[in-house]
Amino acid sequence: MEHKDATDALAALGHATRLSIFRLLVQAGNGGKLAGDIAQALSLPGATLSFHLKELMAAGLISAEQRGRTICYRAEFAAMNALVAYLTENCCADDQACDPSAGC
């Protein structure tokens, strides 16, 4: 993952509503969630939800698929894993006593 991509992803997740949406989609797994179900679960008006979904999509953290008259949103697990890997790739690089497998 490039530095700019990581910055964009972290900026998108830096908003409480977007973080809640992303966590809900991660919990939903590969099946994703319909827009209406996301709005209901998080008590969000449609326009607010659309704005935040657009930001998460622009950061590459979620994807959308048309299903009839509604849209199903899914977390992009490859992007999530790439972000975590980017954040931890140099874990304990300067600390010889650190054991990264024990968790930083």
Can you describe what's shown?
- The chain has one domain (3-88): Winged helix-like DNA-binding domain superfamily/Winged helix DNA-binding domain (Arc Repressor Mutant, subunit A, Orthogonal Bundle).
- It has helices at residues 3-13, 16-28, 35-42, 46-58, 77-88; strands at residues 33-34, 62-67, 70-75.
- It has a three-stranded antiparallel beta sheet with strand order 1-3-2.
- It is built from five helices and three strands, in the order ααβααββα.
- A hairpin with a 2-residue loop joins strand 2 (62-67) and strand 3.
- The chain has 104 residues and is an alpha+beta fold.
Overall CATH architecture: Orthogonal Bundle
The biggest beta sheet, please? 3 strands, antiparallel
Low-pLDDT runs of 5+ residues are: none
Structural class: alpha+beta
Tally of distinct domains: 1
- The radius of gyration is 16 Å
Outline of the structure:
The chain is α+β, with helices and mostly antiparallel strands.
